[in-house]
């Protein structure tokens, strides 16, 4: 049998009695007028007042008397102690008071119980005859719905019920509901301010979401214009779209437009709106068209962020962006078009009526076109690429296009190689070395003078125009391969640069085009600013495979604004082979990188360089399919005039007597005292032996 523990309240009450009993016996005897005794008397008086009030109460009299009994009996003990002498009776009365308090514990055991009774609830008292009417009127007024009584459908009634349960969020009323097709919950609410004529100012997404039990992100608020049915719009109305089901579907299986709005319009191309998606299965590319508002101007594109959204890498060469004012075209290729090979054909290389022909293909798949003439005359050419970058391939494309246009083509290269030798078989003249190049440039300069005096069929002299009939000569293109190396030649370099500048300035008027190929166009490397500007203005430069650290400087030299300078091309357009972690864990080497960027670079027709891959000519096979059956020569009149000037002979011969002037014979001392030769005297040599002697004198000096 277990003993039930004593409640804490009883224990505390007994401790209070134990502490108060000695004071109750001592206070009246030690200091009847002291503050302690006065406090005991006042407490007893309060207890007497409580007992009187308990007797007058209608219910709970016994409980109230028991709770006031400790104070009333303490007052009786105190008064008795004040009127008697000695301590004995006082101590006995105080001990009795303590014992009664211990046993009865009136304060702890006579508290009011607040727990509800287990019995059936007491029925309400009967109402008087007047009370039912008053109660019914109040009930109807309390539960009257503020929404219009328009006999709503069950869905609208349910929305209104939830709206009223939430306390009319933002002090608004639900006027109409429009359920979205294909969904059970999604709908559009038309809400109005509770007080007509007042604006809606306090309605928030959170309030709507809490009222209907959806996530806050699934609620959209929009202003209402004047409605077609005559109902007013403006700030007193609001459209509320609740779309939890559409949001769930959008997260799992979004449409292209939704995917664009969620991932691209908010980041890589801010403010853009999706227009169209086109898949080209033949070319294996997907195009996305979009636009930004006209007030935003030209679209801003973060291509690195865009590549991440499209699950590719920027340097894989699969992503290309084309902007046209506020229009944007995003082209995503299955494999990089720059990694493909585009075979050259005679059809692609043949210039059209405007002198345009296909050089290669841009990253977005468009044909990249160059030209054999401009609206100002003959077109020059500028080809820049490092060794192995595809410069000879590009030069071969231009030579073929010029030949198919009917131009006289001559080629000079500073150093021989297999490809230029093969190209030379399809040109009117071909040679190697700085000496051959300076002779070619002298001929080009003389041709400008000769053609400036040739009469056209109408008996007049005209500047060359391919659209004007009766021209007495054919276009001329002189190709200078490894131009800067030849321009540094100690004997002929200065004259090569001077003649090249002259032809670049005046040649266009006489259908004489100069095509310069090299690895640099920098002034510090020997390229003059005048030559660079003239070539840039009268040609469409092509730059191939530039080292990353030289990209900015290269395009600045070509006059491209800093904001239009492109990013460097990757070292390879092939995607990285998967499984690198597994190879590392197994200790296996990485597969070799596929360096397939030859022929890839930029074509600079306007202010924006465009990435391209040039056409491919197979030098391991015959080049005849790319060239016309016959080679166009100079006219007999031109050859006669050149011969009269001593310029038409075998240019592979050593320097002819007096070809570059005579060097006067001086004694050794005078030769040694001669200062280094200037640009004019450097060419006064008539034989290789004299050239060698001149170099020795310069070395000794």
Automatic annotation (TrEMBL):
Biased composition (Acidic residues): 131-141, 661-672
Region Disordered, annotated ranges: 120-154, 653-701
Basic and acidic residues bias: start-end ranges: 690-701
Signal peptide start-end: none
Domain of life: Bacteria
Name this protein carries in UniProt: Chromosome segregation protein ParM
Annotated organism of origin: Streptomyces odorifer
Taxonomic path: Bacteria, Bacillati, Actinomycetota, Actinomycetes, Kitasatosporales
